[in-house]
User: Fold these one by one.
Assistant:
Number 1:
Amino acid sequence: MKLLKDSYDVIVVGAGHAGVEAALAAQRKALKVLLLSMSADQIATMSCNPAVGGLGKSQLAKELDILGGQMARIADQSALQYRVLNARKGPAVRATRVHCDRHEYRQRMKFFVESQEGLYLKQAQVTELLFEGHQLIGLKTKGGQPYYSRQIVITTGTFMNGKAHLGHTSFSAGRAGEAASVGLSDFLSSIGLRIRRFKTGTVPRVDARSIDFTKTEEQASDPEASSLSFFTKERRKDLEPAHLTYTNPRTHEIIRQSMDQSPLYSGMIESRGPRYCPSVEDKVLRFPDKDRHQVFLEREGRWTHEVYVGGLSTSLPLDRQEEFLRSIEGLESVEIIRPGYAIEYDYLDSTQLKHNLEVRDVPGLFFAGQVNGTSGYEEAAAQGLMAGINAALRAKGEEAFTLKRAEAYTGVLIDDLVERGTEEPYRMLSSRAEWRLLLREDNVDQRLFPHAKRLGLLSEADLESLESRLSLRQESMARLSKINLKASEHLSLFRSLGLEPPSRPMRFVDYMRRPEFKTEHLGPILEALEEGFELSDMDWTQILTDLKYSGYVKQAETQIHQMDRMERMKIPEALNFGEIKGLPIEAIESLSKNRPRSFFEAKRLQGLTPASLQVLALYIQRERKNHACQKA
Amino acid sequence: MSSQDCIVALASGRAVAALSLIRASGEGIFEIFKSMLQSEVQLEPNHSQFCRLYSQGEPIDEVVATYFKAPKSFTGEDMIEISCHGNPLIVERIIEEFVSRGTRIAEAGEFSRRAYKNNKMSLWDLEALDLLMSSSQVEGVRWAIRSKLEASGLRLQDFRNRLSEVLSQVEAELDFPEHEVDQGTRDGLTKAIEAMALELESWAISFEKSRSHFFSPKVAILGPPNVGKSSLFNCLLGQERAIVYNLAGTTRDLLEAQLRLGGLDLCLVDTAGLRESSDPLERLGMQKSLEVLKAADLVLWLSDQAEPAPQSYRELAKDSKWLFLATKSDLRAREQRKEAWIYISSQTGEGIEKLKKELLSWQKGRPDFEGSLHLSSDRQCQLVREAQSLLSEALDLAAGSAELEWLAQKLREANQRLEPLIGKIGHEEILGRILSRFCIGK
Ligand SMILES: Cc1cc2nc3c(=O)[nH]c(=O)nc-3n(C[C@H](O)[C@H](O)[C@H](O)COP(=O)(O)OP(=O)(O)OC[C@H]3O[C@@H](n4cnc5c(N)ncnc54)[C@H](O)[C@@H]3O)c2cc1C
Ligand SMILES: Nc1nc2c(ncn2[C@@H]2O[C@H](COP(=O)(O)OP(=O)(O)O)[C@@H](O)[C@H]2O)c(=O)[nH]1
Ligand SMILES: [Mg+2]
């Protein structure tokens, strides 16, 4: 007999970035949620770089923000510095990056999680899942304690069978200073799930007092950057600069000579690591022509002297790390607090999941975060949110929630994981998005508001402020399109802004479409026209970009619409696949066995080549036409 | 019924010949074939074997059969090729034997389509083969063969590499802001795109110029009624094909004939005269004439008064070659002759040799076989044209102040268009290139 007190609507295993979002999302659906972590102190710990956002990632964080996640808000609350990446490129690839106080981030998230009604945080290590027949009913901790739920979300990050490497030594760990999670991945293999192994690495942390900052370049926080969260009302004032220095040929020489002591090159580590996050060993070896590499020095927090040495991920022995660090300008007498290290861990082959992040063959079991083969906090958090939402929807017996590639980076991420899987730790990149020009930072609210409203994770007040922002933008747009420019007005103003004045009367919105027209031109011109708008910079970027992209957007929308229609195409229930001329046997078998109800589902079946899908689509379309003729 | 059902067809020509070749393909075709033999014959894959075929105990023919085992065959399925005696009656009986054992007669092009479906043939190959089979001109066949060879050739591979390189340079700049790009790299990028656009253009142009050589070019005879169109038609053919009558509106339907001129095939079309008319039948004929006008590669405009064709007709065949023929020259005085008109008489034969020479010299513009890639279908040419104009747009963007992601967008779209020709350049490939070329990472 199960005790009611040990039974939950959703259980989340792991309280990293994925885990907390999953638990919060489920809790916000008014469910009873259990969040289990190996350490109740380490909640949403930043294992590596103390920053949220960046290219492709800021979009993920903002999407999560609009849908009702927590990451972006906490990042703003614990910000140390803001940067805009790709500021000189266009809005589709512009990104915000918030460098955070990692201790404050963790502490704020921990307190927030603890404060939620119906969300129970407990320290425990999960080792196995419990089944009744084929039905998932709960899990068991290392101490033998069972907890019951029909929805379980696994978000164990780098912890499963984690093994850290430092020079010639290696030891079991989930993250430096934390125990590995042993037992769970063996259990998962035993129920038939495919588990694989990746590696990743991190940089040394050093003592700020041992750095000569006068020899480095200062990088101040960017005043142009906007907050990561839409709901952040007031930005922190106590921001700090970061510092920049460079490696030099001597650094490279030391590293080259130590190569035999690198576990990456001595063959101790065999699993695949992220190519876009190379260790400094990789950089030196693979790019011998480069005589210097950038090194970012970022404070880890306001209440610590630890400094993150960005760019120098390494797993060389401690003395080697010290030697090459001290060859760098500004770091001549640097003291290492914690060395860099590499870590190997087990992850799940994500092609075993459905688009709601539920294991195809184990209903009720969800996976999210680094355990799915991704890398990065934002990637983890976005999946966590989606898995949490879907676990909650399942508990309530509701239809799954998924996002399309054309509407969100989150959709691209999950679709890539489910459809393709990944051969190296997966990081979001804007080039992965085929609809990149639609998936911008500035239009996240517009893109996802309808979903946010339907999901109802946000508070009433937050939803209202979003809605009023959107309608304000709409009204402003309507007003803007009524403004006309005369041919000979404000000539000197236009010229002083470096703009060609309108040569004939024209609508202001048409003038705004010109390529050379930028957001900074709006202020002075509107002032001269005596028009006032209450819009933020982000709003203006969004309006201007929408105007400039309108041709493309229309074309893209038609394409997307066509694709959608195709995917939604229903497959008649009585269809005998064997009768379709031109379908290979494997396709017929797979279709007959799985009986997809729509073309979208058929696309996801194994054994269906693009050619078979085409034959199927043609057949269905023709049948439908025939039917229509018969009826007529 | 699945795609594996067995099909059979005569692979060689229909005409009586010493030998004919019959092909059959599909799962179980080998068993079907064996049931037509009386003795136990060992057939090894890829080996030819002499054997006797029987129908209900009665011998049909002595043949040489070759067995190809799936997937190592043309279609990718089990196949039998039978070389039998060339009498159509024998061929028919063998095919009937197959059919009586559950094999069906293949539809046109079905063997190739199966090969395509089973990945034995790319779409490129399929189209080249199609052209190869349908060309009625030596040039077309030569072109198609080259096109087929090109499928595996270096030129497409090379183009693909260049596009992939450009794409990864742009994507690297977008996705890795720490990756700095100097002006030299930028200029290199622009040059590379420009070169690609030019190359695509040359592919398209050389296809467009040459395509008239793949099939017999259409030569349309047009003009007002009663000017002597049908007479010229007959005169050129050297036989009475069309009815000649001195009543306007005599020719109402189209007449087509193959005209051989010094090793060159022309498709000559006689049309109904063009004029205002209330007779619905005649109007229908005129409509057809206009269709022919639109499709013509060369227009022979006839007028007995040397009156030029109305502008509205010229518009319909802007890109075609026009020749202006003043007819019934035997009835006109020599001194009033206009420049640019060829004066002919179907009755005396004046000017006919000159006309033939004009036709030949028009055909002299031979396709340019060297130096260009050999596209093999209008569809391919269309895609190449679209890709080319996208690359040109990309160039304009690179020159102006447009943002880099727009350039990337155009490049992506160009890549999409070219996918059927050069294959997909996927994200993984681009990322791989970026990471092997540039030192990127935090
Ligand atoms: C050394 C190192 C280097 C990294 N380098 C980079 C990098 O360069 N770039 C980058 O983008 N990302 C990097 N990361 C990855 C980044 O930290 C993760 O992507 C992110 O933290 C993943 O979040 P998560 O929620 O999936 O897992 P984690 O943050 O790893 O959290 C896992 C949670 O699960 C809990 N847990 C595990 N097993 C159990 C169990 N059996 N029972 C109960 N609880 C359990 C843990 O206690 C922890 O709370 C690095 C990580 C490490 C450790
Ligand atoms: N004198 C002369 N009469 C011709 C010549 N060509 C055609 N005709 C006559 O013109 C009339 C119309 O000829 P036809 O070929 O039917 O004209 P169509 O209506 O344009 O096809 C007939 O009576 C022909 O005999 C020519 O070269 N010289
Ligand atoms: Mg006639």
Number 2:
Amino acid sequence: MTETRTLDTGSVPERFARGWHCLGLERDFTDGKPHAVQAFGGKLVVWADSQGELHVLDGYCRHMGGDLTQGTVKGDEVACPFHDWRWGGDGKCKAIPYARRVPLRARTHRYESVVRNGQLLIWHDPEGSEADLEALPPVLEGVGTDKYTEWTWNVIPVENAHCREIIDNVVDMAHFFYIHFAFPTNFRNVFEGDKATQFMESTGRPDMKAQGYGDEDLILKSEATYYGPSYMINWLDTDYKGFLTKVILINCHVPTGPNSFNLQYGLVVEKPEGVDEETADYIGRRYAEMFGEGFMQDVNIWLNKAPVQNPLLCEEDGPVYQLRRWYEQFYVDKADIEPEMVERFEFEVDTTKANENWRAEVAENLARKEAEDREAEKAKA
Amino acid sequence: MAYIVPSSPETLADRELYTRSRLVEVACLDCLVRVKVRKNSDHHTSIQWNQEAGDCATFAELSRREGGRPVHQACPRLLASIEAAVREGVVPIGAGVDPIETSDG
Ligand code: FES
Ligand SMILES: [Fe+2]
């Protein structure tokens, strides 16, 4: 007799991860207005100066706490709606129109920011370190040129879950079958330094074809890497009966509170040869819808599941504990990062048993469906 | 207390079990790398590198190539070395890390 197993729900972390966080597309911040972004338990203000350069400050004015996101952009500065103090991108108050001078201590929290691949990223570190430019995600060759469609961008607020839930997906082979109706045939992980990668090959599920999930002729090769704690680039190559599509999907998030986050995703499609602009954009939008549905399938699970510190694993599961050990590096002081958190780790999931069982399940579903259709046909006759 | 802290000591034991147990050292037959390996089945492989593992010659070669992605999948030579170690019986293929049921249990 073995004992009943209990779930250890653990505690919510008291801090937010160190690293680059993406706040959205550059183009969405350049309209000359201040923008509000919820992040790290508070609110940030984002605006573009007269040169079009983006700046990010804490959203609340250090004078009397006015909400800078409801202010206006005046010249290069953001002006507070309460008493018009002007804040510069360097975090200093540049002018107080009704005062003789600006107090020396008029300095607010600024976030270092970089625009990369058309997206705004900011550095966050509770220890206040300088931004680590080495840790930025790579420049995506050709993105932003004619070769690719424009970024799509969507945000899904997740009100009641810690963002580690989405990190866990990196190793979760089986959920792709049950939640996303895909059929993974090959699944590997590599964690090293501040990167965590999932390599997956999968096909569609023939029993879900009518729901728009493709069939076994849809072959997907996916390589997805987290660059730091929150920003994943997913290279997706699909082959449907010889029609090849190359998609680059960004899956990133910003924690908004101790137990909530904004999930964001955007993608570009490499324009297939001989396909006009409009069609390429249409393909991009269709993929965006499809991945949007996929993320909602995850969100519905997260909103209802219990947090688990001690998952019980079977042999066909991915390396959840090693992934979380990797993820922990972003939540401890830099000096406290243990070698194990960053040492290279590789894992190949054995999909043979899963594939065997799933093939049988799919066949059964198809047979049942066929029988139902025949019944319906008969009833009509 | 910065990260998610488990509320039971058994959780730490589980973490230990899943991340550290049943690892066997394997040396690459082509370079000086030494890694820790576990195999639950023919098609499953878990490879733990550490600071003393050394640098993989194949990865170094791949990193020098242009236009590649920064993350490398498994090194084919190391995988061949692991397969050899399995054939020689150095790396046992076993039933995961779960405690085995005992007859009196
Ligand atoms: S509160 Fe911002 S100017 Fe007074
Ligand atoms: Fe998922």
Number 3:
Amino acid sequence: MPGVEGFMYPNEVSLYWSVLIVLYPFITGLVAGAFILASLARIFRVEAVKPTYRLALLTALAFLIVAPLPLQLHLGHPERSYEMYMTPHRTSAMAMFGFVYLWYLMAVLVVEIWLDFRADIVALSQSTIGWRRWMYLAMTLGSANVSPRALAIDERVGWLVTLIGVPSAFLLHGYVGFIFGSIKANPWWSSPLMPVVFIFSAMVSGIALVMLLYMAATRLRRQPIDMLCVDTIARCLFYIFIIDFSLEMLDLIHRVYEADESFRSLDFMVHTRLYFSQIVLQIYIGTLTPILLLALTQVIRLGATARKRIYAVAGSLALVGIFAMRWNVVIGGQLFSKSFLGYTTYKMALVTREGLLVSIGLTLLPLLILAVLVKILPPWPEAEHASIPEAVAAP
Amino acid sequence: MRIFRDTGHLFRLAGLFAVGTLSFFVIRAFLVPRSFGEYGHYRGAAISEIAAHPIRFAGHQTCETCHTDVAQTKNAGKHAQVNCEACHGPLAKHADDPSIDPGKPDTAVLCVRCHAASAAKPKGVPQVDADQHANGLPCQTCHQPHNPAIAAGGAK
């Protein structure tokens, strides 16, 4: 059989979890990371990152809407997936994820966005006409009350929602890590560190994404980039990246030192089939290079343009690195046999339901959704200032 | 009262959530099959539905009551542990009514299903590279399917 060597059990010859299952933790991680960046502004009162607060929330929403799609496309009978909500099995990690997802989407993200944008929604429902007016009117839930007191209450409730939201975001992505980490039959996955590593890598990717989106969007809108804001985000990214990398190295050192019965097999795999994606792409290009670049901006004084360029490169590399990490977890965990004697290969299809084109589409879809969301609810600071006085003026 | 006036929109949101949660339970009541959970975490009625499926495999004991000669040949060779219907396919209909002709399996596709060389197979299963080994000839030219050892002679 092509691509198979050594002794494999028959059900291990082909990979069942394709590139779509790589996208699922990647996209979910972006959601959790973006939300945690937003909560920096709100809970931890890091004023400098305020300009990205609303953008981060909308980014989280856009990606969260897409997060279950790769799973749906992977299913043989997607039309039955609702049964997970109807008759969930308590011992199924995936069934419980459905509820974690729903909780996060409905109870945290949508509520927080609604509270934060309410004044704008009311203002827009008064300033627009036609179907857009009806859309905004529906979104106000029939209440045009934007008195300072009501807004102050919203602010406090929103703070509370964010407070619940931070552990929820950890739960959401920690849970994705748990789904892999709890598979005890697979030594590549089974590790209690998995959820923690997933959370930190999620923060890295989400923060990098919002930073890139903020810089790109500001550029497109021909506005000056708030350097204090990007500098703060980049510093944050740098620290979290270091924690993330240390955790991954901790996991690695632990495995090397413990060297249990799976070690030789996994070690061989990392040196052969996963060499490019793990060592080169994930560690050298996707982790060490951006960390060094970010460290550079911390130790030497650079001009604004140089910093912006470095941030853009480091942010993009971080995204590549985190994607490679998801790839190595999901695909890597299926390349070796439970016999520890055989290896298989994964060949990505191009136009099939689980192929490359679909996954590219799924990666671009959230950006499209985000563009629509930004049209409906402009998150920019100018819009905020423009709409609130007008809204307050209206009785 | 002022506190209610300024939190009115929050109550509307809570109401929306209540309606959503309620409709979830209403929809669930309609969608979950009646017999779900009767015996375990599945649809109880599924058991009787599956039991009502027509039987497709007769089992080798049934075949052997009529085809005693084949059974004897087979039990003398290495295919003794391979079931009749593993090669011939489900034949309960034929066992009930022998006038239904089951036809003969095509050895070109049948034998390689188990004997094609594959790294994933345990070493105990005899494996051949069919193209090289058979040179395009049907397997039963040299092997008798019911007792495949060359010493036992080709088919007929």
Number 4:
Amino acid sequence: MSTETFYEVMRRQGISRRSFLKFCSLTAASLGLAPTMAPRIAEAMENKPRTPVIWLHGLECTCCSESFIRSAHPLAKDVVLSMLSLDYDDTLMAAAGHQAEAIIDQIRKKYKGNFILAVEGNPPLNEDGMFCIHGGRPFIEVLKETAADAKAIISWGSCASWGCVQAAKPNPTRATPVHKVIFDKPIIKVPGCPPIAEVMTAVITYMLTFDRIPELDRQGRPKMFYGQRIHDKCYRRPHFDAGQFVENWDDEAARKGYCLYKMGCKGPTTYNACSTVRWNGGVSFPIQSGHGCIGCSEDGFWDKGGFYDRVTDIKQFGVESNADKIGATVAGVAGAAVAAHAAVSALSKARSGESDQSKGGK
Amino acid sequence: MSLKSHEDGPIDEVAAGTTVYVYEAPVRLWHWVNALSIVVLAITGYLIASPLPTVPGEANDHFLMGYIRFAHFAAAYIFAIGFLVRIYWAVVGNHHARQLFYLPVTDKVWWEGLFREIRWYMFIEKTPHKYIGHNPLGHFFMFFAITVGGIFMLVTGFALYGEGAQAGTWSHTLFSSWVIPLYGQSQDVHTWHHMVAWGIVVFMILHVYTAIREDIMSRQTMVSAIISGHRTFRE
Ligand code: HEM
Ligand code: HEM
Ligand code: SF4
Ligand code: SF4
């Protein structure tokens, strides 16, 4: 297990050399690398001992795993999955129970400082972490322990990256994203609920083949997939610029595929690759299916009020308030106050005018 | 200025009909350019968040949302450049050109003036003080709405602008790259840009009302001061 290369693993999985080379060029393309990089990926995979991956599950719904195993390039899925399942993923691997848990210890010791820890979900911190038990122990303990020996951590999905719905106010279990409990390891966030399968496989392949972390933005997301907003590459954008919007789910504009901005589409504020990579092997993505983006890869998307509002709620000012409601109310009050004040001012001026006259002026 | 007894304080002994030159030409010009740009920004900003009804026909025949956003961004540049020029003038201009950018919070006379002004607005005080420059209450609101609020709108506005302009552009490098992570995501930046826009609208309502009211009721001219620069004291 220790000296095997990726290529050897793949061949052992029954993958032909031809398919292997195809995988390398597909990976190069999906990473936005030049075609000349494909042979370099092949070379790396043929010669480097593979890096083990441990995949841990905290508080989550397994949508990241579900997405991952549906990666469009079946090859990528087979390859990466077979590499992963060789190590540890309690949801996908065959082993179970104490045997399975022993694998984590083994890898931690054997590949100390040399394996990648992929985390799906997050640790809840309240009640000493009792809301999520992993092999008889609070998940937070397992996470910290495993992370201590890892080379780098991948935060899969919005749960590990931001907290997601289990962290929604008032967050009774105090579900906490990975970067708020692990501080001493590089963390790569791959947010989304779930993240796009091809984005997941590309990120992990990049790390395994090049032995380094993809370039990240300030919030720790790989720039190559999270550098642009849905809105920047949305095929309905011409309708946005023209001022053609769906106003109701059943109107003519909805049938014609106009922009979903007024239906609360969060494409203008969401960084993800849906409008370019799309979903389910490039078949479609939410907006193409007629529903606005809900901003599932953005921090706090679950706590911003309705998915169908363009101007979203401001929690600080009570439950059902947004900038327009508050602003229009305050402006209305100011307007009314001005009118009332003007009336009183006029009265008092008239009165003081009278008294001035009675005193014979001032 | 010989009339001035105290930097930001009131003057009380002045002969009726005395006229002083207060606001220099660049300040007056900026006032009206700035006022106009903010009105355009507020209207187009509202229409960005709540767009007009759908236009009929083919998308390639229209650019309505595009033009509204263009007007917002053009006015934003005018607002931004005007603001920078105004800061320059605060440095080289007279004392009243500087008032907008600071509050004399350590000045007891100023605070007394502020409370007197509030009492005057509550109809408790019979007469207001006379001021050469801004009265303390006006000064207070201008500082928060235009200096603090304006800088906030510039920073958040250019951060949103940089998202569209994308990484590598100056607006993205200077603003988006830190403002968006500061809020966590872009949606909250929109929300607060929107919220403060309403704050500035409220200021406009109060400002225009008080300017006209003071012009009629106080012991000095107001509107002419910001048009011709000269303020005349009555009584
Ligand atoms: C009909 C509309 C307006 C009138 C009659 C008006 C009148 C005035 C007057 C009389 C002053 C001088 C106040 C003083 O002497 O203390 C002033 C100053 C000022 N006004 Fe307006 N104003 C108008 C619209 C606006 C708008 C829309 C804005 C922006 C929201 C604005 C922002 C300011 C600012 C920032 C100052 C301080 C000028 C400085 O110190 O450089 N005004 N205005
Ligand atoms: C006093 C000045 C300003 C006012 C009153 C104002 C008002 C607004 C409002 C109400 C919105 C809608 C917010 C939402 O999405 O809910 C908006 C959006 C925006 N504003 Fe401003 N704004 C001002 C200054 C600026 C400046 C200086 C810039 C700099 C370029 C700017 C750039 C933007 C951008 C980029 C958007 C988003 C447009 C989009 O999503 O398509 N704004 N503004
Ligand atoms: S549908 Fe959404 S992402 Fe697409 S153009 Fe409209 S607002 Fe932008
Ligand atoms: S379109 Fe938006 S809500 Fe849908 S998957 Fe992509 S980022 Fe998430």
